[in-house]
Amino acid sequence: MVWLRVPEKCSSENQKAFEMERAGYLAFRRQYQPAAPRLIIVAESPPVSGKYFYNPDGVVTEPLFSAVMQQIGEKPPSKQLGLRRLQETGWLLVDATYEPVNGYRDSKKDLVIVRDYPDLLDDLTSLSPDRSVPIVLIKVNVCRILESRLSKDGFGVINCGKEIPFPSSGQQGKFRAAFSDVVLRAAL
Question: What is the pLDDT of residue 20?
């Protein structure tokens, strides 16, 4: 597995900030990837903090992980068990880019997501060759940038214009309501 490299912008007192190479992130994800996905969730990117959604060594209180577990009605004792339960449910989380962008200003985040769109298309096509698996987008900029692009490229984005915020910084309730609404409307 390709592991970690500390970004040059990382300060010496913040050695926890790091990023993995794309292959490392995908290796983590493959361990918990459902054989036949029923829903694909597209998020922004892995965080600079290293608290990657599919890293089983993380904690169940990580904001995105916790919020997704609530959506499937689970409160797992460990992240590994929660990831297995998500796999059994048939839900899969994919990132729009595997370059951690949460430390960037908004305009740069958006440019990286647009730049990496061909990689996202390849990833989604490999997961749903017939493009039949419903896709839900989370994080406002991801919704804004990707909904029309993915729809134009034949994917079934089920947001229908509804922006779903990232579940942190006081947005947990809004995430819960918006995500539930989108998934219920799609009868998943």
Answer: 63
